[in-house]
Structure to design on (576 residues):
């Protein structure tokens, strides 16, 4: 099994963790983290690039040394240096970093003071109330650690959609090449584009004598064969992800695809409708008549399955039993937004702060996506780790953009900023500077632990500023990593509506923030959404599709989203 980009970035991040715990130089730690990000950002397989003789040292943040390390990983699957490091750092200490309250320094303290080496040890110590006695911890921290432990253990079971995609696409390509295989389709929560998947459900149609099952369980990446049968097998892959494969007859393909796409709640509700119409509905088809004299009225085609129970075709993203069935009966399903509706990008960073590409490179990349505008929205000064812009540097960037705009007739570079919302609800740059921009994104990057009331108040106060246009990643959550900060989202939305503020759907696959429920809530309240990738590299612009998936799950149409508009119309949304 070829090494995937995520394998390489996982190793680099792991090294960074271990270095950090053992007190290594911060510069060295950052070098590995940056390299991990570069690797993740590549849309092409790094191993393939190596095979094609490309020089990896030319990638951003990858020097000669790291290029050699990547080659070693590609060849051996691991790094000698990692083995050595692991021997120096005891037990599962690096896993403790998954707990939000614990940085490398605290992890080291826990180890030296209490001998804690694993999440289990940590849990026991917290339950025994030993952690609160350590200097710099306290009772509150101890309780938070216990809560986090539970979350980490729960979330470990689900895989982020983008990670699942990296794993399943090569698997499907492999299956597609097997003799006698016809259709290969991924159903389940993956097809519904849920932000995380519990497992993957693949359906295959094939000729009678196909060896697809043997080949599936013999796939190189398999660590465990959970079940193997004639029509259904399950495997576990190296990442821990489980994949179910079902071979279905062609006459049942549509019915099986429908059934295994789910969700279960949706299926159960639709089957009730079928029963009322005296129809039997299962993964083999839709049938009428008595058991010994059944007639199949639909089966091979998914649209026919819907039609047979009197429903319009429901896009997979909507199949959650959240009102889509009633809408399909009444013929009032929304026309969902499509990737091709997007005309521009409104959230991007460059070299000037923590982005990895130059202004020009970002512009070229946005143009090659067929966009007609790109906004540059750097961090503001409060975000020191990202070298956030102060007034002077922002003014310099504004000049730079204005100069470049002249060179790109027809393509518009918008002048923006991702300005921090400070603790008291003021914005991190003075109004007279914000006034020079086309628009602002305003984001919370600090003080996540205020009470819901205080956090809500803080953001609403910020929105009172007439230069506040878009609320960036409104909940602050990082999928599987960090919960949303406590917030009264309904109040925030009411406030946004009253003030003409737009909400961001951050398309980064780790964020997807707003989530699907909140997108729908915003739509129902008549609030506009901007789908933004928050790109920190040219490849980052390609995350737009994840935002589209989430938008569709939130019932959004083209009209609900501002960056489907031409630039002239777009700019009207920024006039408050
Ligand atoms: P996941 O894997 O947790 O992300 O979510 P799903 O939706 O992929 O669930 P999974 O893998 O357990 O099952 C795939 C689909 O199969 C599910 O969405 C609907 C269908 N299905 C599974 N069990 C049942 C069931 O007991 N009744 C019905 N009607 N459908 C089911
Ligand atoms: Ca599944
Ligand atoms: Ca499954
Ligand atoms: Zn950003």
């Amino acid at each position: 099994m070829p090494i995937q980009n995520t394998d390489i970035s996982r190793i680099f991040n792991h090294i960074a963790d271990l270095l950090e715990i053992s007190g290594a130089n911060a510069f060295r730690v950052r070098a590995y983290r940056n390299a991990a990000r570069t690797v993740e950002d590549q849309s092409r397989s790094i191993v393939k690039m190596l095979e094609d003789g490309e020089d990896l040292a030319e990638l951003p943040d990858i020097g000669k040394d790291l290029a050699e390390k990547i080659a070693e990983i590609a060849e051996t699957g691991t790094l000698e240096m990692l083995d050595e490091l692991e021997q120096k750092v005891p037990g599962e200490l690096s896993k403790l970093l998954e707990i939000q309250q614990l940085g490398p320094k605290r992890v080291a303290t826990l180890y030296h003071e209490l001998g804690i080496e694993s999440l289990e040890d940590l849990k026991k110590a917290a339950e025994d109330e030993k952690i609160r006695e350590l200097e710099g911890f306290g009772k509150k921290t101890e309780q938070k650690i216990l809560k986090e432990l539970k979350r980490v253990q729960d979330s470990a079971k689900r895989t982020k959609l983008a990670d699942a995609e990296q794993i399943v696409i090569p698997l499907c390509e492999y299956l597609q090449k097997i003799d006698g295989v016809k259709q290969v389709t991924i159903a389940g929560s993956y097809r519904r584009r849920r932000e995380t998947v519990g497992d993957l459900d693949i359906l295959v149609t094939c000729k009678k004598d196909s060896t697809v099952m043997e080949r599936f369980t013999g796939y190189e990446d398999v660590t465990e064969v959970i079940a193997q049968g004639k029509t259904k097998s399950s495997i576990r892959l190296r990442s821990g992800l489980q994949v179910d494969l079902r071979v279905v007859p062609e006459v049942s393909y549509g019915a099986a695809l429908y059934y295994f796409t789910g969700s279960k709640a949706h299926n159960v509700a639709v089957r009730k409708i079928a029963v009322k119409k005296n129809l039997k509905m299962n993964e083999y088809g839709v049938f009428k008549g008595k058991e010994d004299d059944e007639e199949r009225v639909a089966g091979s085609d998914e649209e026919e399955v819907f039609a047979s129970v009197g429903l319009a075709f429901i896009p997979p993203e909507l199949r959650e039993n959240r009102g889509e069935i009633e809408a399909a009966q009444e013929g009032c399903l929304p026309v969902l937004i499509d990737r091709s509706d997007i005309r521009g990008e409104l959230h991007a960073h460059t070299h000037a702060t923590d982005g990895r590409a130059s202004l020009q490179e970002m512009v070229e990349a946005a143009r090659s996506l067929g966009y007609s505008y790109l906004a540059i929205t750097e961090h503001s000064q409060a975000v020191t780790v990202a070298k956030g812009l102060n007034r002077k540097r922002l003014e310099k960037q504004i000049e730079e953009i204005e100069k470049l705009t002249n060179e790109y007739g027809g393509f518009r570079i918008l002048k923006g900023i991702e300005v921090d919302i400070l603790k008291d609800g003021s914005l991190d740059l003075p109004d007279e500077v914000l006034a020079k921009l086309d628009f602002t994104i305003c984001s919370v990057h600090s003080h996540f632990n205020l009470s819901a009331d205080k956090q809500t108040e803080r953001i609403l106060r910020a929105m009172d500023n007439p230069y506040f246009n878009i609320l960036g990643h409104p909940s602050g959550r990082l999928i599987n990593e960090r919960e949303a900060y406590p917030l009264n989202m309904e109040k925030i939305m009411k406030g946004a509506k009253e003030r003409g503020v737009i909400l961001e759907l951050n398309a980064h696959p780790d964020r997807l923030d707003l989530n699907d429920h909140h997108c729908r809530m915003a739509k129902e309240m008549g609030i506009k959404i901007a789908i933004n990738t928050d790109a920190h590299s040219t490849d980052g612009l390609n995350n737009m599709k994840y935002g589209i998936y989430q938008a569709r799950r939130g019932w959004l149409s083209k009209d609900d989203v501002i960056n489907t508009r031409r630039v002239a119309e777009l700019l009207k949304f920024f006039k408050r």
